[in-house]
Amino acid sequence: MDKRVKRPEKICWVINLGLIGYESACALQKRLVEARKDGAIPDVLLLCEHPHVVTLGRNGKAEHLRISSAELARQGAEFHATDRGGDITYHGPGQIVGYPILDLAEHRRDVRWYVEQLEEVMLRVTADFGVHAARVEGRHGIWAGAPPKEEKLGALGIHVSRWVTSHGFAYNVSTDLRCFDWIVPCGIAGKRATSLERLLGRAVPLEEVHRGLVGRFGGVFGLKMEIAEITEIEQGLAEARKCGENPVEAAR
């Protein structure tokens, strides 16, 4: 008889936030990061879209914003400095943004490895749609097309605190690519962004890409993905703090 004990699968909550402001998403990440550090919740993958916003990473250069702040406001876009890595980027409707809140101590304490896994998730999803994308030496994210005219399909910018991650990736599905003209994308002059719809020459349902990202994320990180509602989690965390219970159980 096989006496080997099967290890329980690690859980990752998937929360679809829909369209959410950048500041609100950052505030939510901070709360979840603290809860993850305390072991109060399992790993979490937040998926969302943002209204038009330009964000500048902690190593970014303000001059990579090509238009004035006044013109940015006229375009209906916000500007935010952030604590993620990387330079400048654009987020907007039609782009799926993923914010993993993972405890790398339970995976692998290696930031480079983690970045490569996020790239792998996007690469596999892209391949699922019959499109080839690849890494480019010395640059983060994933790229489509042949050098030297490769275009960026997915971007990365992360933050790690006590091995718990925040921020993450941005994958262009049906993004208005004209908005990238506001910036020097990721601080790399002469490079342009592309989208899955542009590469395929057809419309792609955002929900289809959502499903693909969730499935591939679970496969790459070895996680069992469970759909969760943020309202239930917030309520569970609040109740657990009052009662001293385990928030994971209180949120269910």
Task: Describe, in plain words, how this protein is organized in 3D.
With 252 residues, the chain is of the alpha/beta class. It has a single domain (10-250), classed as 2-Layer Sandwich (BirA Bifunctional Protein, domain 2). Helix content is 31%, strand content 28%. The chain has 7 helices and 11 strands. It has helices at 22-37, 69-74, 111-128, 196-200, 206-221, 230-243, 247-250; strands at residues 10-19, 43-49, 53-56, 78-81, 88-91, 95-101, 134-136, 139-144, 151-161, 164-172, 223-227. An 8-stranded mixed sheet has the order 7-8-9-10-6-2-1-11, with helices on both faces. The chain has a 3-stranded mixed sheet with strand order 4-3-5. Helix 3 (111-128) packs across helix 5 (206-221). The longest helix has 18 residues, at 111-128. The chain is globular, with a radius of gyration of 19 Å. The two termini are 36 Å apart. 40% of the residues are buried.
